[in-house]
Prior knowledge:
Armadillo repeat-containing protein 4; Leucine-rich Repeat Variant; 4-stranded antiparallel beta sheet; globular; 9 strands; 56 helices; 57% helix; 5-stranded antiparallel beta sheet; mainly alpha; Armadillo; copper amine oxidase-like fold; single chain; ARM-like
Amino acid sequence: MGQTLTSAAHWTSAKEGRGGKLEFTQANEAILNKIIQFVEGFSGAHPEECNVIFQQALTWPTCLTPADLSGGYSQKGSETVSDAVTPNGVPFVTLKSAGKQNEICVMSFEHLEGILRASGDKKMSETRACLEHNPDPVAKMCGDRFATEREDTEIEDKKRNLRLVLLIKDFDDKLISEAIKHISSEVKLTPPEVDRMVKLLRDYSGDDEEKHVLEDISWMPPYTYVFENGCRAPPYRQLHGDISYIQAQPHDGDKMCITASTTGYFFNGAEGETYKDLVILLREKSPRFAELIDKQDLFKVRHTEDDNGLVVGSSHGHRDIDDEDDERQDNGNRAVQKAEDKKKVAEKKKQDQGRSKRLEPSFKWRVLNVHDAQDNKQEKQVVKAPPKKRKEILYSDGRSVKKAQHSDGEDSFEESTSESEEEEESPDRRQEANSDLPSEYWQIQKLVKYLKGGNQTATIIALCAMMDFNLTQETCQLAIRDVGGLEVLINLLDTDDIKCKIGSLKILKEISCNTQIRRAIADLGGLETMVKILRDPNKTLKTLAAETIANVAKFRRARRTVRRYQGIRKLVALLDCIPVVSGVRTTEQEKDVEVARSGALALWSCSKSTKNKQAMRRAGAIPLLAKLLKSTHENMLIPVVGTLQECATEPSYRLAIRTEGMIEDLVKNLKSENQELQMHCASAIFKCAEEQETRHLVRQYGGLDPLVTLLSQNDNKELLAAATGAIWKCSISPENVVRFQQLKAIELLVGLLNKQPEEVLVNVVGAIAELAKEPANRPLIKKAGGVPSLVQLLTGTNRALLVNVTKAVGQSAEDPDNMVMIDRLDGVRLLWSLLKNQNASVQASAAWALCPCIQNVKDSGEMVRSFVGGLELIVSLLKSDDREVLASICAAIASIAKDEENLAVITDHGVVPMLAHLTDTTDDQLRRHLAEAIARCCNWGDNRESFGREQAVASLVKYLKSEDISVHRSTARALHELSKDPDNCITMHEAGVVKPLLVLVGSHDEELQEAAAGCIANIRRLALANEKAQK
């Protein structure tokens, strides 16, 4: 275990003399689960070794109490000890109080297993705490006694200890192997990509400096052997993400030794510089390489309709892997035009010389910073001369301010789940010289002049006077900016006078609520200075700096800047205070709590970036947020819960929220009277309830009742959207559906189907779809008047809403009375029309909904034929590339084919060869419905023989190896129908169908038994007929 914990496990950074913590990642969860399984089954598998006494006790802080330890334990003073003791009289288990938390000591595997059993659903937390406080458990268990063993030690004792060490070593090796597999499945940069890039650059390497971009590039010896996974790095370095080692010789410098890892390329021994692409790294370090690569004729022509120029890579000298646009760089440099393409491009350029459309380099080489002077000239003409500033704002590649703002706009919806593009292309408004301006504008400009020219006392007075103005007004904010006040305020942050710093930060905090101001602060380097202040011993300064960062970090570039300058780690450190849950707090405690609150606010803003979420996790933010979540103060809870719900889009955070006991606190805060806090708690539950364990905990802690209560908050749409989303996800568990039924949630949800925004409707309909899976709830939907509203929503255009509403209609159609109403409202026609939707999820959901409609409607065959072109549309969707669409269409075909006339029509449309073409799939869901469709289609004409000619029979036999009983059932039915053709019987027998069918005959499923036996009977009849014919 020691090697695995050291090499394969992910740890947070150690700080202030304390060791790091295990991160909440899927890899760590897998390791912890394996260790729990190993310990829990140890005494049964190894009865002798489990009694070995540890050299040192494993000690860790625990959530267990004396009440959790029953049978074989007694109380001695303030300690709870085991009745069993070592030969030296030391108890095998000791539970004692250590401050506000209990501490436990264990001396053997047998009792360690007992402690895990006593932990119940807290096994993961106990194992995590044990390993964090005992990072090398083998050393404590066995020590170095094998090196210093006394001669009088018993031989049997030696053997038992040796066997224990070997068992742990063997288990450690297995953990290492599984960790390597897990790391290999999560790589970002892959060995084939590295090989292709090196091979590509090798083709452009040589001694001729005019033709070749490098003198040489090769694999670094002795690491040239290629392992099975494609890596050249040794296995112990693969655990750290290394793929291979490269040596490159540029024309203008020394040989470079480069490591290719799963996160990118970096120089051996260098820290902090990781590049997503090898070409970018070489460009940064070799000017000659950059010059030569620019000369390569690797462009293609593209005609653009707009006036946008060449988009080039960032001109910053330092690029690291955390850039938000690294994916574009990764895609842009991975492939290069071949020699044939060059000739075609040259000819194309000659043909297009007379055209007015502009020529643009290939997107693949945009990041190489190659652009022509004419583009620069045209773009620079757009940029107006900026006012005097502390730092130059214009980019060196000549991009206009408008372009820069566009590239640094707010994160998209996919990255930020709660904030839209707040600052996309905001206009840069300046006050007109002759416009009527309020007196405050001119007064503030005078104060800024005093700030520029006054001494220390005048500066402080000017700052105080400026604070007397209403800085929330846009006029006052722009007045400070227009006269150059921002540069002065940011410069004051570099002074040694604390009062000047505090005054400046107070003003910046107020005016940074303005979109233009916060962008200007970022452009002037204010964020870098504020990040440095986060380490200042003055708590007021740290609080103000964090609050200002929280305001400024509303757009992507600002969040990236905070991360680049180690701001995430410093902000996480601000959370490390002891919140006072109750009682009177001292002044210092008040300041500590205020510092933590401001840090949570800043992290909340920064957490809208995926890479910032990862940086927060690595810095150890999760346990600190869990601790702050127990606070009773709403001003602390709102940013903490806001940060958690923003981060809950990541699986590692959802795991942490569940295992760290945060679900209980979220449920408790759902009952708060603060609607903003309720909204964030409901949103966090909404995102975390994807996992079954979380849904169970929400019900266990009584979270379903307050969620239903929040449905009455019809005036607060954000709260309503969060509450309905949480109910939707919690309804996935059948146990929760029972409770929602008792709370009459169906009636309340149906009442929200009208006059609500789409974000609410998506969640409401999703919840109704999940609740309708319970047959008892389907009549309630009709009784509450929900069926007409659901059918009406089928005419919408929102894809997420269409997916959910089709599911809800499909579930409702399982009830015959509901189906009558759906048919009368023309709901089946609307569902059929959704098959034409361009979105695969909508197509699949509509097809699934059609299945119960066709099964439960009267005269279903006639109804299906009444849709002009409907059957042809169904068959054509068998050409889809989406597996979910294919499975749903096969299920629909199985229902349609029950009618003989419809079966004849779809046969004429070529359904047989299309179904046969899909039989090579390995997806069990598709296999099940495909086999069912084949079984139904065998009942017309010579379709059985056609399936045999299309070679579908042998592929169907392979389905019997699946572990899904439903696949067996539908496959046996299909084989039974196909076996009525003699040629198919021969094919089945050759494919070895008899043996698995004999096993299925013994199944408890009567339908499966009958189909398997029927198939065997047909094969046997053919064999008997053949024998009789031969005689």
